């Protein structure tokens, strides 16, 4: 864990913002920050969240020489009354005042968002969704390659990653412990995505993976997938705590409990995240379409534009399943995630709720009319 250091005073003029380059600062962010220059604020990046406080990286004076600056990691406060910055997460860019209180949130370029952990919106909750990480460029979808590889979970995480706006990469970890990794099956379940089998302990495939990383990299996956071990290997140091999986069921233990950002030695930054037991999709129609681009491409060849891919004649999707080009499992997974996403959208969107209510009202009217015309009784 990065520990915050108390630093007194903030020089608001003549601040060298290039000191934030190891944390991802660039010209695009500088343009976003321009409107805040007149407010005597300074940019910073959220390293870790902790309730009403957060650790941030900001260009601050060193403890020994007040005239010299460094990108220090310090503790910052969140304003209790400002709703705009109440939903901060690791990876956000913010602006702080002289007292190290967050006063503004810079626009997010990307965000990894999942539905509420409960699986359904809660009217008493502030939000029905959770932002896992912000301003991410590359998402490493991690799963252990030495056990049963859950293709459905990978597809779900890929939909989450694609929806964020970042570029996903599937990483099958613990390759040194696996006898037979189904890498071709995983590639079939991840069209358009690089799939790598690596061993953080043995160094297998790590050079190839490191060469693919750009910008801010976030690791997501279930507990026991080896995310923290992989993060330590990429960072070149034992930064994050690790634990072995349970012997009985090979399930992982929640070692990482906070999302935390660290600079990578070769440039860019890395965000390690806790294991995800529940991954509900949130407004992820675009991500599902990208994760199932093979199904979507085939659907465009169907005879009917509204083909449901069940019994319709001229269905290109069913033809691909019959020929073996597309596994039935892929279509089933696509339907499952699409239904889940539509259901959640209808629960959280008043307009969709009204439309669904109207559809069922029309169906009930039609049924009553049918029974009346037939002279029967509705049961």
UniProtKB/TrEMBL annotation:
Q: What is its EC number?
A: 3.6.1.-
Q: Which is a Pfam family this sequence falls into?
A: RsgA_GTPase
Outline the extent of the CP-type G domain: 125-279
Q: Where does GTP bind?
A: 173-176, 221-229
Note how many cofactor molecules are bound and how.
Binds 1 zinc ion per subunit.
Which keywords label this protein?
Answer: Cytoplasm, GTP-binding, Hydrolase, Metal-binding, Nucleotide-binding, Ribosome biogenesis, RNA-binding, rRNA-binding, Zinc
Top-level EC class, please?
hydrolase
Where is this gene product found? Answer: Cytoplasm
Concerning InterPro entries, the annotation shows: G_CP_dom, P-loop_NTPase, Ribosome_biogen_GTPase_RsgA, RsgA_GTPase_dom
Question: Any keyword Zinc?
Answer: yes
Query: Is RNA-binding one of the keywords UniProt gives this record?
Result: yes
Alphabetized SUPFAM superfamilies for the sequence: P-loop containing nucleoside triphosphate hydrolases
Cofactor entry: Zn(2+)
Give every EngC GTPase domain span.
134-277
What PROSITE patterns does this protein map onto? ENGC_GTPASE, G_CP
Which family is this sequence assigned to?
Belongs to the TRAFAC class YlqF/YawG GTPase family. RsgA subfamily.
The record describes its quaternary structure and partners as: Monomer. Associates with 30S ribosomal subunit, binds 16S rRNA.
Query: Which PANTHER family would you find in this protein's record?
Result: SMALL RIBOSOMAL SUBUNIT BIOGENESIS GTPASE RSGA (PTHR32120:SF10)
Q: What does this protein do?
A: One of several proteins that assist in the late maturation steps of the functional core of the 30S ribosomal subunit. Helps release RbfA from mature subunits. May play a role in the assembly of ribosomal proteins into the subunit. Circularly permuted GTPase that catalyzes slow GTP hydrolysis, GTPase activity is stimulated by the 30S ribosomal subunit.
- What name goes with this protein? Small ribosomal subunit biogenesis GTPase RsgA
Identify the gene encoding this protein. rsgA
């Amino acid at each position: 864990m990065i520990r915050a250091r108390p630093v007194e005073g903030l020089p608001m003029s003549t601040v060298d913002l290039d000191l934030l380059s190891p944390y991802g600062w660039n010209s695009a962010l500088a343009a976003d920050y321009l409107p805040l220059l007149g407010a005597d604020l300074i940019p910073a990046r959220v390293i870790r969240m902790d309730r009403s406080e957060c650790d941030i990286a900001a260009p601050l004076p060193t403890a020994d020489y007040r005239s010299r600056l460094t990108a220090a990691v310090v503790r910052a406060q969140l304003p209790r009354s400002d709703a705009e910055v109440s939903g901060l997460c690791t990876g956000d860019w913010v602006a702080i005042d002289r007292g190290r209180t967050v006063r503004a949130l810079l626009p997010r370029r990307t965000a990894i968002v999942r539905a509420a952990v409960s699986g359904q919106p809660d009217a008493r909750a502030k939000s029905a969704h959770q932002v896992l990480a912000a301003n991410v460029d590359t998402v490493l979808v991690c799963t252990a390659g030495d056990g049963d590889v859950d293709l459905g979970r990978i597809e779900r995480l890929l939909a989450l990653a694609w929806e964020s706006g970042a570029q996903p990469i599937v990483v099958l970890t613990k390759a040194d412990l696996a006898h037979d990794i189904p890498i071709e099956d995983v590639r079939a379940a991840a069209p358009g995505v690089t799939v790598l089998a690596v061993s953080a302990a043995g160094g297998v495939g790590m050079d190839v993976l490191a060469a693919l990383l750009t910008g801010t990299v976030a690791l997501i996956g279930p507990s026991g997938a080896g995310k923290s071990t992989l993060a330590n290997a990429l960072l070149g140091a034992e930064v994050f705590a690790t634990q072995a999986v349970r012997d009985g069921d090979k399930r992982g233990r929640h070692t990482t409990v906070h999302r935390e950002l660290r600079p990578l030695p070769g440039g860019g930054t890395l965000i390690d995240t806790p294991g995800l037991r529940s991954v509900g999709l949130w407004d992820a129609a675009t991500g599902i379409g990208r994760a199932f681009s093979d199904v979507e491409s085939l659907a465009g060849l169907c005879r009917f534009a509204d083909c449901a891919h069940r019994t319709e004649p001229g269905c290109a999707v069913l033809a691909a399943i019959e020929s073996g080009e597309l596994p039935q499992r892929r279509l089933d997974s696509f339907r499952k995630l699409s239904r889940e996403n539509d259901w959640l959208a209808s629960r959280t969107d008043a307009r969709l709720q009204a439309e669904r209510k109207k559809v069922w009202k029309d169906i009930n009217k039609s049924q009553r009319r049918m029974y009346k015309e037939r002279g029967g009784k509705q049961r």
